[in-house]
Amino acid sequence: MKKFDVIIIGGGHNGLVASSYLSKKGKKVLVIEKNENVGGLAEYAESINCISPIIKKELGINVNNINHSNNIISLEDNQNHTILSDKNGKLSFVQTNADENDQKKFLSIINNYKFFSKTLGAFMFQKPPRVKSGKRADLFQLISMGWKIRKLGKKNMRELLRVIGLNIADDLEDNLNSNNLMGLLSHEAVLGTNLGPRSPGSILTLLYKQAINDNIFNLNKIEVAEYINQLEDCCNKNTVEIIKSSEVKKILTQNNSVTGVQLTNGEVFESKYVMSNADPKTTYLNLLGAEILDTDFIRRTKNFRNKGNVAKLELELENEININNIDKKMNGKFIYAPGIKYIEHAFNANKYNKYSENPCLEFYVNQKTLSANVYYVPYLINTNHQENEIIERCVSVLSKFIPDMKIVKQKLITPNKMEEKFNIAGGHWHHGDLEIDQLLMMRPFYGSAQYSTPINGLYLCGAGTHPGGGLTGINGLNAAKKVIEDLK
Amino acid sequence: MNTSKISYKKPLLETPFHERTSEHCYANDWYRWAGYKVAKEYSSTELEYTSMRNTAGVIDITPMHKYDIKGEDAKKFINKLITKDITNIQSNQVVYGIWCNEDGMVIDDGTIFCFNENHFRIFCAERNLNWFSDTATGFKASVEDISPSIAALAFQGPLSCKILNLLKVENIENLKPFHFNNYNIENHNVTISRTGFSGDLGYEIWCDPSQAIGVWDSLFKFNRDYKVLAAGMNALEMVRIEAGFIQPNVDFMSAEQALRPNRMRNPYELGLGWLVNLNKEYFTGKQALIRHKEKGPEKKLVGLDIEGDKPAVGSVLYDNSKKNQAKEIGIVTAAMWSPVLKSNIAIGFVSKEHYKLGSNVYAEIYHPEELDYRKIWAECKVVKKQFFNNPRRNETPAFT
């Protein structure tokens, strides 16, 4: 039986970051990955958010942004598309139907959001404080959080506190007239969350995304495969042992403390420290087992909102793809979410666990191929998705803009498929909704925050922890630091 | 349950015994219990109480919540739920247990009947379906609320066994305390357990609602010689205080219902530490209870023997015989004049410095006297909660 200092369940990018960091500190680390390749859900990340500079520094990762697509094209049924260009974070209109007043206001709203998210950004890369721990460090951090908000000044602080719980539709309708522009920003607020434009808190998700990614439209792009390769190299250099194509069946415990893990093939590895890159629900209910957790804790685990609703659609056409009324050379992110009403109607179906009749799309085009994020395609319990029907609905939307679509290949990855492949309960990008009660020191939920768990020696390091999904790697790094702290 | 029965005109349900209880209930004074109406007082609380202490009293306890736990993990489920270890439980045995939340605070208590390894039944006063269902997560065990499908009577008093004997309930005198079995009362199939809350010999009788009236009538069959009375909730309150049984939301707030966190109580504070087995590998609240035990309770629920004869209902407790120097140290949760003990008793919380048996505390009693209060500063002695505990209660064969 092999013994390790730390065992990490799941070789997603956070698992790799954590293992690299731990091994750099001289720990003997084992990573167990279910699939043939490490990287996990990063495989599906189309536009990648910037990797945090902290990770780059700590692990010596060096991946450049390719940034080849710096246009945002919001499609409109009447073919009068809006095109925005982003030059190093500076937005300008290339083409639009909206009047000048609207354009100005649109840009000022975005600037406003950026300004507020800077305040939030300060908390993103730290370990969130523990309320009532009685420790001076936690108290200091809480005070500094409050101070950051207070420092905005009276007027801005009021405005932040006004919008933080607001739905995005209200704020946009107060300021704008153009449906297209409102749809565009609403799209960014609700994509990947279980919210519609009229759901409370949809501004917060936008601010939060901006704080993590430093860009409201997620335009930074890096070569994901390259990033994962570098992480894997970093692990190998530091003699991290990675076992692929092996699934953990159970986390073994004794007297409320971790003793090791058992694989599905029966093999057992011993360790007093186990980190789970899996989502909280999978970790607690499947890997650990509800039998040894307090009932209140089980309640909170079950109530953690983790229903995914974005599907990935990959199409290959016979001919090169041309979009009506758009210059062939124009490359960028295409969005079809032509108004608040349209998105909200799409969201209505989601409430009742049905997929939208008229889905919203975000897609990238590369010659003959097209890859899209489709929402709302909710995670379904006990039933299966009619995949062909979903694809048909998407194609009928796309055919408004792409003449003569002849599909050669098609592939749809629903939240259920993501769940199956990566063991993510609910198939949620972020392992769980980014809403006010599931953020910061409350992420994923009370009793499990700050990467620790009720079981001694068990830690969470996946997207279910602060600061949530995306490819920041912060979750893995902070969790690893916490383990080092506790190992002392 | 027939939901069409529930309307604004008839908000409370009637138990299967209602035909009889309403006949007996001269006072027409009803108490609301879990959506049912049960008699608060039939004719005279004192008489009903006396029947339970001298002959036998019958109480309709149908509104009790009853949950069936079935499945191969049923025993494991119970062991996670309650603080006691039931690994060695036998079929036909009953255990009294409490369950706590993750902070080690008591949610409720109840009796747990073991039919076999895979089938248990829990009886409790408060609704617990939600808690039980969440606790069952991860176990191969189903939780079902079977409350409406069982009619229940408590048959408590020194002559209860004698009367069951006269009714030719075979071998009833050999039923051990905290055990149950199936019996036949004049061709009615019933389950009888030797449990109860009177601190004396007593049984609880469980049957199908269709048998309810028949069973009720049988119990009153020998009333020419043995005056069995239907007893209401007020009389029940009297016997349970004497026996020192505590009641959720009366003596302490259930952790599931308390709004203020500092109102929740752990088992050590309630004097129920003997029900907690910290050697058991796992149960909800274990980690917190280890800490609570180490720390020791800040206050404790104790019995109080009070001077005089004026019940200390709702009294505040103080530490000094001189009123102007006294500091508040506790509160009375239940109090009464005990006719059988001829003493003034109460149950109450007393703080750390004073909860040792034998210490003296002082109660300020507000005794109403013809539209005026007489304020009495009464000395109380801290004693065991179990004021009344007749040896008959545990004797087998039972007193006939």
How would you sum up this structure, described in words?
The complex is a heterodimer of chains A (488) and B (400). Chain A is α/β, with parallel strands linked by helices. Chain A has three domains: 2-64 and 222-305 and 424-487, FAD/NAD(P)-binding domain (3-Layer(bba) Sandwich), CATH 3.50.50.60; 101-213, no CATH class; 310-422. Chain A is built from 15 helices and 17 strands. In chain A, a hairpin with a 7-residue loop joins strand 4 (71-74) and strand 5. The mean pLDDT of chain A is 90. Chain B has 400 residues and is an alpha+beta fold. Among the domains of chain B are: 7-62 and 150-231, Gyrase A, domain 2, CATH 3.30.1360; 298-384, Aminomethyltransferase beta-barrel domains (Elongation Factor Tu (Ef-tu), domain 3, Beta Barrel). In chain B, the strands form four sheets. Chain B has a six-stranded mixed sheet. Chain B has a six-stranded antiparallel β-barrel with strand order 15-18-17-16-19-20. In chain B, strands 6-7-8-5-9 form a five-stranded antiparallel sheet, with helices on one face. In chain B, strand 17 and strand 18 form a beta hairpin. Chain B is globular and about 65 Å long. The chains are: A alpha/beta (488), B alpha+beta (400).
